[in-house]
Specification:
The protein is an alpha+beta fold and 174 residues long. Among the domains are: 58 residues, Wheat Germ Agglutinin (Isolectin 2), domain 1 (2-Layer Sandwich); 57 residues, no CATH class. The protein contains nine helices and six strands. The longest helix is centred in the middle third of the chain and has 17 residues. It is elongated, with a radius of gyration of 29 Å. The termini are far apart. The structure holds zinc ion (ZN). The site of zinc ion (ZN) has 8 residues, from strand 4 and helix 2.
């Protein structure tokens, strides 16, 4: 069947050019499941329709049918690319360990409470991304101190060698 698509010619009803069946729109219940207009002419027709009927196109884009078809195609895309996505995610995770560390810290209750809503997250990411191996991100003013509460914001963060950070733990001289 697939061979037919490449070997059988059909004359396009619009441009009158003979083309392989593969160049024709898919259409059920027609010979070889292909219609009579070639893809090129079809695309042109659709483009002209969009220019001539902007209101109809807008209405269609808002319609349930359109939303349904988008949902359907994104669902198939999701399932088709599951493996690919898993691999690229793993690669990303290896490159971005610090960001993952930030995410897991942000999920922690204390950090969450110390992170104001207005904080520039991109800046935070940058700080975590640039942290050298062997260093920890340290809160200059601790966010878990019983007397004062530092914030999880860029200017309250510093890089500390991991050992120093463990020594400092939560001590702050006030
Ligand atoms: Zn054509």
């Amino acid at each position: 069947m697939i061979e037919n698509l490449y070997s059988i010619l059909r004359k396009c009803s619009i441009c009158k050019i003979n083309k392989n069946l593969i160049s024709f729109e898919k259409s059920k219940n027609k010979p070889y499941d292909r219609g009579y207009r070639c893809n090129k002419c079809n695309a042109l027709r659709a483009a002209i329709y969009r220019i001539k009927n902007p209101e109809k196109v807008k209405a269609y884009q808002k319609s349930e049918n359109h939303k349904k078809s988008i949902r359907k195609s994104s669902k198939t895309y999701y399932h088709k690319n599951k493996k690919k996505r898993a691999i690229s995610r793993k690669k990303w995770a290896i490159k971005n360990k610090k960001i993952i560390a930030l995410h897991s810290r942000m999920r922690g209750k204390r950090v969450k409470q110390a992170t104001p809503k207005w904080v520039n997250k991109k800046e935070l990411y940058k700080i975590y991304q640039n942290c050298l191996p062997g260093y920890h991100i340290d809160h200059i003013i601790p966010i878990t101190h019983p007397l004062i509460c530092g914030l999880h914001v860029p200017w309250n963060l510093q890089y500390l060698p991991a050992i120093e950070n463990i020594k400092k733990s939560n001590k702050l001289e006030v």
